[in-house]
Protein 1
Amino acid sequence: MMRQYHRIKEEVPDTLLLFRLGDFYELFYEDAVTAAGELEITLTARHKDSGSPVPMCGVPHHAADGYIAKLLRKGYKVAVCDQTEPPKKGVKLVPRALTRIITPGTVTDLTLLKSGENNFLMGLALGNDAGDDALGVAFLDLSTGEFRAFQRQEEDRWDRLWLDIDHFAPKEVVFPRSQEERIPEIDHCIATPIDDWTFDEDAATRALKEQFGTTSLEGFGCSGQGLAIAAAGGLIYYARQTQKTALEHITGLRCDTRSDYMVLDSSSIRNLELLESVSGGRPGDTLLGVVDRTRTGMGARLLRHWMIRPSVDEGEIVRRQDAVEELVSSTTLLDATRASFHGMADIERLLSKVVLGTATPRDIVALRAAFEKLPGLGTAIGKIHSDLFRELAATLDPLEDLYELLAVSIEDEPAVSFADGGVIRDGFDTALDELRAISRDSKAYLASLEVREKERTGIASLKVRFNRVFGYYIEISKANLHLAPDDYVRKQTLVGGERFVTEELKKYEEKILTAEERMVVLEKELFQGIRDTLAGGAARIQGSAAIVSQCDCLTGLAVLARDLNYRRPEISRDGSLLIKGGRHPVLEALAAEHRAERFVPNDLFMDRDQSRIHIITGPNMGGKSTYLRQSALIVILAQMGSFVPAQFARCPVVDRIFTRIGASDDLARGRSTFMVEMTEAAIILNAATSESLVILDEVGRGTATFDGLSIAWAVIEHLQSHVGAKTLFATHYHELTELADLLPGVANFHVTVTESENRIIFLRKIEAGAADRSYGIEVARLAGLPSSVLDRAREILKKHEETERELSDNLTVRARRTKRIVINQLSLFSPEEEALRARLRDVDVELTSPMEALKLLADLKDTIDLD
């Protein structure tokens, strides 16, 4: 047996091998030491008395999934070795073989996956060592069959790769062994090098064409994308090797050659709290948590995809909005469609288990129940008139033939084990029915045999019994042993009697046991045939599942709009962004849940010319960050095809949303809070376009005041003159408000507060104009700082304000003196300058700051030589 173990272990040296022994999976040698520590189970040993004991530990086979899940979460790969034949009399060594290799990226067990999230495996293929080469990347979710590939050859190809990684969040990356040193380290993702030849373009092309049953890959949009094909082919090879089976549910590949979605990087996804709360709060305290009204795992995954990759296709956005609007306007249609999803199992993931040969009879029952709901869904959406629903209704396959097969073949409550029988329905197979009849008749036979033997022997206490160890036997008490007939053959001696067997009983036992063994084998064969039939219809089943997920998403968005009074946004074609009565979806939901104060709506208007950059000032806690975030969230919801939390909204199609919000560091990579801030700002300034939306909160606050002010000033100038993106810029640098007078398209806004008895009240309303104070000390008071600290802070602030006024007065005198000098110096120029001198005399500007002096010089720069 240990030779058998070593032979199998050589096939999977980098995994923890679970080796089936009876009712346990055992681990040996270093695998046992590792697993015992990680799983906190007892480490023992074989051959303890020998000079070289073998460390071992084990887990019950029926509970193995839980232990495997724990190992996977810790980053290990697990290989499972099962018995391929049942034990037989006279055969000491049971045949065993690897049945599956489970890695973090190849998990398909529903108990190990989150229903609303994909579990992607990533393939990465790099060009040669030249710095300007393209790279290919592919993502495969084995649990659903979703398969995508991209070729990145832009100058920012590595940035785009990291965006792909942010969106797909792979759990494992597979790559050619020779490129191991060039593969970047990816957080929460294990690295798996495999043979280089599997990433060869020709080999990969053959593997993909074989997988899809096609003669070309052109139909998948892969022409000219050799590295994308290489990455995808490498994944297919790896998936086949780990699953030890064909992958019929992987029926196609999507090769994107252009961006058809709004780009959201990891910083924006995090800062806007789309999927996770920055504060580590509940999953519901996120945009996804508020918006997700889906009823199936398939719908939840698609909604998540729509959220982190909102569409930029105006036609698709409008089609979704039309569908949602019709459902919102008809409660009857909405409720009828939504009822179809109640209790529906995850068809995509159950199908993957079918294809990979791991589906249990109860999985098939869940799949049958899902199929049963499809005709009702088709009827419901057939009554909806919007273009998208008409298309979905026309293409929905109700899978009635597959449902009928499962209805007549599988019991409603099948046994967990085939050894217990009761998986296949009576009447489905004649041979199985005959064997079951023999098994059922055995009870009656044994009862009649017991009556006959009692009469023949005169022993009233005689019993005919069965157990799994000794089979069928006749039991006689010790007091009646003298009455045992000569044809009784002794089988076992007990304390109180003996057990016998007769020739008739031996023959019947052989007949019964043979029938039961044949029943188990036949049920397994019939079940496998049913599973194969389902696997053969994988493409049809996937198509129906995709329609279910879209319908689930759309009805969920309709319920959201109806329940929370969301409105349909218009699409702006002139680039303007108009929001009236906009609300933050998450904070509004939290306020309603906790019955807190009513959320205060706000308006927003931005266009390409007059109001493109908004500088927003006001106190902390006043609502600046909320206003920034809610504006971005409304745009995201609009491009998902959702209704939005506003009285009215008109949104342009945005190519990217960038955010720089909050303070965080990355000490593991040697980056301070300010360095992280500047890195994020650099990404925005280098990648944003005139079609982007930029959200900046407190840029420059992580360094010295004048350094930070200078950087913030320059960032706004760059966005205004070189980028042209719509920008919401919240700041406590009140000096920046002067840019509204210096730069076209820049406007000032502030959050309103009111003062009452030396206290401030936050009105959380955004209005035009700059704030006159920051109220920092009052916010500190609300936070609970000691009164002595607050009093001292007010004294220091008063002194600084007096110094500032003195400096301002001095600057005013100096600036006015400079103005007189400039006017007088003009007398040295030609007479043509007299008109300019007159103009300068009429200039009546209070030069109270360096910025006012700068404005004066800016007015003059095109007219005179300032040197």
Protein 2
Amino acid sequence: MISTNNPTSQNRLITARSLTGFLFSLFLLLSAGPVMGQTSQDISDFRNMRVSELSDDQIGQINDRLDEEGLTLQQAEQMAISRGMSSAEASRLRNRLRQYQSGQLSSSDGSNDRQPETTRAPADNNSFMVFLEDEDENMIEEAGIDWDRLTQRQRVTILDSLRRDNQSVQRIFGYNLFSQRSVSFAPSLSIPTPKNYQLGPGDEVVINIWGAAENRYNLTVGNDGTIDIPSIGPIQLNGYSIEEAEKRLIERLKSIYSGLGSTNNPNRNTYADVTVGKVRSISVTLMGEVKQPGTYTMPSLATVFNALYAAGGPNRNGTFRNIQIIRGNGVMDTLDIYDFLIDGDQSNNIRLQDQDIIKIDPFENRVDFSGEVKRSALFELKEDETLADLLRFSGGFTDKAYRARVNVRQITDRERRVQDVYLENFDQYVMNNGDQVNVGEVLDRYENRVEINGAVYRPGPYELKNGTTLFSLIERADGLKDDVFMNRALIVRERNNLELETIAVNLRNVMDDPAHYDIPLHKNDVIRISSIFDLRESYHVTIAGAVRDGQIFDYTDGMTLEDLVFKAGGFSESAAPYRIDVARRKTKKQDGERTNEIAETFEFSVNRDLSLSENDADFTLQPFDRVYVRRAPGYQEQQQVEITGQVMFPGTYTITRKNETIYDLIERAGGLTEDAFLGGANLQRTPENLAAGDSIETEEIAQFAMDQAGEEVDEGGLVEMTNRVAVDFEHIMSDNNSSDNLILVEGDEIHIPIERQTVTIRGGVLHQTHVRYEDGRKMRHYIAQSGGYSERALKNRAFVIYPNGEVDRSSKFLFFRSHPEIKPGSTIVIPVEDQQTQMDVRERIAIYSTIVSMAAIVATTVDRLNR
């Protein structure tokens, strides 16, 4: 009896009840409707249940039941196993439940419920979870392993071993030839019957007669090897080829068809031919090292490849080079599959006969060929085949292969050994079973290369010949460019210990007198010859202002102001060509001269059409000059503003005067409508036109967005009005000389709404909401409408945002507190106190203990000092 007074016992009782409930729910769930693919079996039979056939919806319902009962995936797995479900199926159930919880299930048939990797269970379980793929199950079945009787750890070890072994098998050259569904060797029955096909019992013989007489015979060769033609009698055809049978039948048909005769008979008026309709079936036996040995029934047109395809081909130990076809009591022929794989030759793919036996012996010599070859695999070699044959089977070397020598690792009777085989001995080196051949990669270096870069006409790598010098290499590079820097060149040389050294060369001396100053070059030398432009700062000039394409341009000697304006696309419409400023660096100073001047400036006038004049060359630009084309003083582009809402003619307007105001724009728009609510009117201004004082700031913090009024309150307590400028439109319309009557600028947007009938409450209240505006009501009325203050509300810091963007806050004088007036469309904001992290009891006890201990130490110290 379980004691319910013990908490542990209570937990166990709850778990037991939960497991029972989950089991009952699972039984009802699976019995409620047929599971896909299980309509013919008892779904409540946990022992024979297949989780892969459960739909995603059913997995979801099982997961919901787990959540209701508070069960873990591990408990659900243990429960399923206790009811007779195999460990493998229980693992799949747990895996699919985990995938459902992580949202990974993508199909209702459970096709994604298997994972290719072997993974560990969660940290609370020391066992291993093993997820199988179809290929894993096939390997386990072929190996004859009783999977359900293994522990989880044994499963991990065995599955890893099987997978490694399978990877090794997949490297056998030709192993997958007969297992790939895309490569079919099924015999074609729609082609004409070969003339050398030998008839036998079960074949259908079709005789067509046309001409002076017409008839058709469909006759089957009987067990006695004959066909029976009406009015003629039985004719023996067993063992005859089609060609022979045709001659024999026509000869017998002449007795009833007189027009049949030889081709040179002038009285011939009747013709006949003989074909095979349905071919007979034959039995072929495959034995030895074959994936699926046994006796197969096949069409009589089947070949050796057809039979091998039906049986899956040789297994991992079977030979591919010496497949025997036994007919009667002896070997009729042998098949080398490599002839087909390497050369596409099927000459030995003979047609089978009834009772033929295909025998596949174990391989005798298999070699591992890897590295820089085109086809890396395990190859089977015959007794007299060499490394050259192995290289042919692999398709040859890759372009990066080191071909001079290969490394062969062999297995002797006692140990291993390594042997180097050189290219000239490839056709003589006979391979042994178990040899491993690796082809390395050629070194990433050159044996005879030098390189020249820089101011030569053809830079790049060159061959190092006997006697190559710096002068001769420059000549092979088609010589030096005109902008070459002649005072110095550099040779970077690689020493014997691979360290680099730099050798400086006077290039002028080498080119003028190579007999005395030329330098012999070594392997891997790199010569750097510079241009005069490489050794100085890039020269450029800059133009900006009223031009079409102001930017930085490369400097050229003799460039004038007109040339630079021309490169910049000419003047813009706003340009004042009579006022162009040029700023020039101060680069040259007298020795010891001290001055505050850092640049020179010049002022010029240029023809607007950039026409040439006699004075064009009077002033030329210098490197790093900066040119500024000024705008004409009286030029002004149109500036537009927009007014929307309750005016007679809302829309976009162009500013006509520099001092046009808000009042002027409202008047131009036809004035206000009867529904206009000036208390909620607002002005939006682009950020670049906002002054520093146009935004409204407050120290209060509210962690929410003011959707109603269009503001945002950040965590620092700054209410950003984005582009809104707070102005009093009622004051503007009553007095157009008011300071609120701002002068309009480009991009201003004025919106005059209809009167809002609500008040918004945000922040530290129990229910943030919108309530109906009531004239004369105070702030506390609207706060009460939202449920009152919350626990963390900062009541004394409440403030109001009016529809026009203005802000007013609560204030206190002595013992008196005043709250802002509430207008239609207002937003009341109650800031909220930052939530402090609360200390638990243990932390408080620890702090109090530390304080008491410190106090005791201080008291003891003071007492000792007093003594």
Protein 3
Amino acid sequence: MHLFRIVTIVCFLLCLCATVFAQELPQFDFSRLGFVSQWNAAHDISKIESGAEGMVISIGGNDPYTFGPPRDYPANVPLWLTVRMKSDTEGDTQIFYFTDGPREENSVRFTVPQNQWTEKRIAVPPLAKGTRLRLDPPGTKGQATIAFMRFSPRILLQEPAWPRPTTPDVQQGAYTLKSGNLIIKSNALFGQFTLAINGQDMAIGLNCPQIGYTVKNGLHWLDFSQKRHNKWSMETDGTIRIRHSKQDEDGAYWGWTQTFKAGKLQGTIEVHSEVTVSQNREIVFLPMLTILPGVGSFGEKKTQAIFPGLEYLDNEPSSSEADIRGPQSKRQVSDSVKNTLPMMAVQNGENYIGLAWREDEKNPDKFSALFDSPDRLFGSGGHVMGLLFPGSDGENRVEGSLLPYQGETLKAGVPLTLNALIFGGKGDSAVDAVKQFVAWHGLPKIPDAGTFENYNALASAGWLDSKIREGNLFRHAFWPGFEAKTAADAPLLMEWLAQQNSPRAGELKTVAQSALAQVKPQDYNASNVSHVTYPVAALVYGGVEQNAARAAQNARNLLKRFDENNRVLYQKRPDGGDLGTTHFAPDANGLTAQVVESLLENASFSGEQDLIDEGLKKLRALDKFRNTVPRGAQTWEVPLHTPDILASAHLVAAYTRGYELTGEAHFLEMARHWAWTGVPFVYLRNPTDKNVGAYSTIAVLGATQWAAPVWFGQPVQWCGLVYADALYRLAPYDQTGPWKTLADGITAAGIQHTWKQKDKERVGLLPDYYLLRPQMSSGPAINPGTMQTNAVRLFNKPALYDFRVLSQSGLLVHAPGAISEVKESKTGAQFKVMGWTEKPYFVLINGLKSTPQIRINNQAVTLAAPHQFNAEKGRLILNLQGAPTVEISTN
């Protein structure tokens, strides 16, 4: 009782402080000329002037910002910054706070729609005396108007001294429920249950639950751990039902019921948790369901753990600073928009235990997920996974905090319900938990990407009309620092669009021909601006022999990147910090796999067996990373340690190519395994109640340079599209996984993210990142190629490129179109090529040991121009047109 009164007094004092601070904190009221004159047009701003509605900033360049005057702030007081503004351009506004120069980590961002007044309240840390602000409005032209910027104190509720959970005694008189190898035992106390898998104790319930609520006289806590007023039963259908009722000290009656029953899938237990109260209560903490893995068994250690979208762990602590430093590293209770899959799991030894939940589609922020590994919140000696009310929407609590800034109303007589799942089983890594979750939850519906005709128009506008193009040159992205250059993939993809009945076919072909003329033939396969590319330009335009020779040299150069232990070691960049300092090794699977993938692709196109053999050797060395977290594929800006979807993508692609080249089941197994490691980066839920979200993909679980931008909850679809491309390649060989559906979903989401026709400069371009809550594309605008190469498969259109290994004859076939109707023997092969271009094209066939005999459409041909045979390299280049059938005899 004393604790409640102390908290009440503290809250009163804080409110009193708030009144005082509100009078002292700096305010910038830009309706007054004196405030406007204190801000200067520092960079890419043509002028700042006072307008009828506030400070009017006229933007005159790509990187506009203005500085304000220094101001003094009270020490150690967390603050709210409220900004009211409107802008001619939708996008991110960024505000820096500093005394010695602006830094990314000391800034906040918020989005503003186009031409609408927006008032945003943003949490900022305590500021020092003499702090200055820098305001970066969105856009590269037009105007932004700021009405005011006001500071107020940010009051934090204080947590109680949490009672430490204890291992329950459920040996006698307990009800037991079994689902497969998952067993729950429960006794008469609320939250008193144990979970075991395959005979191993895995978790207990939170047996000291408390509900926190506020009324007029302050913050109160209601203890639900007492046996009094508890009822429990075992129903005839095998359901364990526990009911607890209690009256709080302010006169309201509470009822809390939890039921447990075997799920439809083996190894799952369905949980229904329901709370009611007789009077309205402002809830600040209500643990609807909490389990504590490791308590009374394996303790704080683990093999792996996963909290999709936020944590992907080996035996290491969650909420660490290995990938992000500062307050945002605290991820115990995070903005729910950051959860990609509504699940979490801890795996130890050969078993894992998980918690998943069904979401309210109209209110996905209803509950907040709680995850800490090990448990540093309740001191249980294990780990903690749970679901709390109220939810977390990115604004109502300090990131990672158990308590929000203020309560959310639970209305009298209206049940608060949660439907969840406890699941578990045998597994070597967190991948097995993800598989079981997907089996239970299923995959969301593929987003509506519109018709192919609309997509063709969008992609065509991207290549022809957007700022990605500068005459006959193309940028990788429309953003400062990306210069236009020659590119062969741009004309190739434009010609493909032209072939698909595009209304702009004439323009596409004309621009494509002019752009291709800028590229040297030996550079056709290497001159690219897209993230997803194939060695196909030479097969369409010529120079195949030159490009095969260059591929061989590329492979030899890539081999030089490996050390004597077949590792690719991280190298600190001369002009940057050491991004390897928080990683436990000098190499990582994603860093190495991208080199192996490129090595195998170049070796395959060259056809040189010694290079293929070396590539396969490097691939086998990747086996040491099995059952580890995918990491380290984006070390141009992100720490080597950081979990990374690109790592999954490169590993899938490398192992799939290994399987194609050898037919070894082990390589297919490894490709399948790494494909599953990428799933936690994909939104298999709609994180908002808006249209765009499902199948969007998180890039990494961390921040650039450990600081900012922070990438949690920030879809970076180009990374997902590289992963989707790898899944498309894997799907024909593995029918056990959801690979085609996942790839289609990711691709459709990418089309949703793409800038549409109303944005003349960025039409048809893929945003570097997408903002889920405001439903807004932002960041550098990436060329259409990364999107288009995947859209080809989504819409089931003619293949851009195909690669087949004819294992009996030992031939490797590369074609600008699908290879089908394959028949082969040890002495030859027959296949059909569905070329997508209306012009003659080339097919490359490697692996010939002697001069072959060739028939095209049942007609014998001589190996003279326009065909070509390199006997020394065993390389055959055929010049074909349309959809011919090719017969090769090696007798």
